[in-house]
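Researcher: I'm preparing a figure for a lab meeting and need a structural model of a single chain. I don't have an experimental structure, so a prediction will have to do for now. The sequence is pasted below. Please return the structure as C-alpha cells so I can convert it later.
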Amino acid sequence: MLSFAKPARHQNAEPEQTGPKKLPWGEGERLQKVLAKAGVASRRAAEELIDQGRVEVDGAIVREQGLRIDPNTAVVRVDGVRIVVRDEQVYLALNKPKGFQSTMSDEMGRPCVGDIVAERVMAGQRLFHVGRLDAETEGLLLLTNDGDLAHRLMHPSFEVAKTYLATVNGEVHREVGKRLRAGVELDDGPATVDKFTVLEVGEGKSLVKVVLHEGRKHIVRRLLAAVDHPVIALVRTHIGPVALGDQRPGTLRVLGRDEIGKLYEAVSL
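Model: Understood. Here is the structure written out cell by cell.
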C-alpha cells in the first residue's frame, strides 16, 4: 500500500533540489518505466499516478508524461515515500545467529557475517552492515550497499530506534523501568531508554522489551547490568520500521519497497 504521509524533514538533512533535471531524448529513462522497474506499479498505472500528481522527482511534483530522468541521481517519491530506483542497490535483513561476529571477515577465523553473504560478495556486491551486534547477541542486522543510508542509520543525530528482547536475571519490578527512562550513569556517561516493558516474570528470570536509539557498545547489556538485572540472552527485533518477524537465524531476506521507503523517511533521505 502506498502511504499518503509526507516524509518528516530533519534539521540536519541536506536541502533538496527544487525540481527534476530534464534529460534530452535518448538519455536516462522515462519516469513511468523507472516506477515500473521499482515495482511501484505497471507502466500504465504509473502514468495514472503521474497524472494524479502523486509522483515527485527531486522535490517537485511531476505531471509530464515521458519525462526522462537519471535513475542514479534522481530522488523519486510516490505519495511522499521515497522509492529505490537504482538497479544495483541492495537492501537486506539478516537474522544474525548467536556466536557470529558483526564483521565481513575475521582475522581469528571466527564465524562472521561475511560468511553468510560470501556468495554475494564474490559476485561483486560491496555490502555495509548497519551497526553491530556483539557475538553473543542475535537478531536483526541490516546489510546494504547504500552508503548514504547506512551512514545516517548509524548516526546518533537521526535517533533511529532499535528494539531488543532481553532475558535477564531476577524478577524485574516497575521501578526499574522508571530508573532506565530517567537515565542511568554508565562509565562513559549517562544513558536512557525510550521505552521499557516487562513481558514475563517467573522462576527467577524476566523477559523485557527495551527500545532505545543509543548506539554505544554493549549499551543494552550495560544498562540492564547497572540496574542489577544482567542479561542472559539478547535479541534485536527491530531497527526503525524494519522488523525481524519470524525470520530464522542465519537467513537473509530482501527488504520490501515500503520498508526501504520508511528507512529513507526515518533519516530524511
